[in-house]
């Protein structure tokens, strides 16, 4: 070793950043803070502390929650009373509606008896046939009943996963009724609501309306028709579709034969746009006195 090397001493290597980081991972500030706490003798604070402002805010929030809870509980009897009053009114109106419907049916039967007595045999029979075909008369006979019901809980029948609202919708009832007509049905009713040529099946929110009257599940579509109607309906598009939907979603769908069905009459039709044709008046033998011609006068009020 030379004299220069002996004077310099052993060679020192400056560590790089990564080596220093692994050697001293703790930030120097933590060591300084610990040293100051050791000099002053104060222990380190644990947890959190609440100052005067925070304490006031907490007390104020607690007071507001207490007032809101008290006001809610004070108003609860009033809301419960109003709810029970509305339920009572709904039940009362339903009872009145049922009573009026029963009375209307009795009056209709009385009118039919009086009318048949006034018309006589053949014309009364013809009138009954027309009423049955248009839905204005009660009918009895053998037929088919299609039953539909919502899936229990809206669960998927295959995987058990939530399949959403597996419910019967108005389009299902529409397709079933149309295919029953196509299979030869002569009269159809949905939950006792008789269908006519002007009937509508639609939805209003979650409710299904048949001729603007709500129907609830389970749904029964009853049809009176000739023999073989069930076989023809089983091969229809709605039957195949509903069976597939029932298999996937758990919705209930069944078709069965029914003997001696009785379908009620539909309410009186309200034709708002039909007008009777005006027949031309018969001219007198002497012709028109004012004009002196032999042509017949035009019917009063116009006409078609």
TrEMBL record:
The chain crosses the membrane at residues 50-69. The keyword Coiled coil applies. Residues 279-304 have a biased composition (Low complexity). Residues 90-117 form a coiled coil. One of its GO terms (cellular component) is plasma membrane. Residues 274-304 are annotated as: Disordered. Pfam families: DUF881. Keywords: Coiled coil, Membrane, Transmembrane, Transmembrane helix. Belongs to the UPF0749 family. This is Membrane protein. It comes from Micromonospora sediminimaris.
């Amino acid at each position: 070793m030379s004299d220069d090397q002996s004077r310099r001493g052993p060679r020192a290597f400056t560590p790089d950043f990564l080596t220093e980081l692994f050697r001293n991972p703790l930030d120097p500030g933590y060591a300084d803070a610990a040293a100051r706490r050791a000099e002053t003798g104060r222990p380190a604070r644990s947890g959190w502390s609440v100052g005067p402002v925070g304490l006031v805010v907490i007390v104020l929030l607690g007071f507001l929650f207490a007032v809101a809870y008290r006001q809610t509980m004070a108003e609860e009897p009033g809301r419960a009373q109003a709810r029970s009053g509305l339920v009572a009114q709904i039940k009362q109106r339903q009872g009145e509606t049922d009573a009026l419907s029963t009375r209307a049916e009795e009056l209709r039967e009385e009118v039919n008896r009086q009318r048949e007595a006034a018309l006589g045999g053949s014309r009364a029979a013809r009138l009954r046939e027309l009423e049955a075909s248009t839905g204005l008369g009660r009918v009895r006979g053998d037929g088919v009943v299609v039953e539909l019901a919502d899936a229990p809980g809206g669960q998927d029948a295959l995987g058990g996963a939530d399949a959403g609202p597996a419910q019967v919708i108005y389009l299902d009832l529409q397709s079933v009724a149309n295919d029953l007509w196509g299979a030869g049905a002569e009269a159809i009713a949905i939950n006792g609501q008789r269908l006519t040529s002007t009937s509508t099946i639609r939805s209003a929110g979650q409710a299904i309306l048949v001729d603007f009257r709500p129907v609830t599940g389970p749904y029964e579509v009853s049809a009176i028709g000739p023999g073989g109607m069930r076989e023809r309906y089983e091969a229809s598009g709605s039957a195949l579709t509903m069976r597939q939907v029932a298999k996937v979603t758990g919705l209930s769908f069944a078709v069965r034969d029914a003997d001696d069905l009785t379908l009620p009459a539909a309410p009186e039709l309200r034709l708002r746009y039909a007008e009777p044709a005006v027949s031309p008046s018969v001219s007198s033998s002497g012709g028109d006195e004012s004009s002196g011609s032999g042509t017949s006068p035009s019917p009063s009020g116009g006409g078609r």
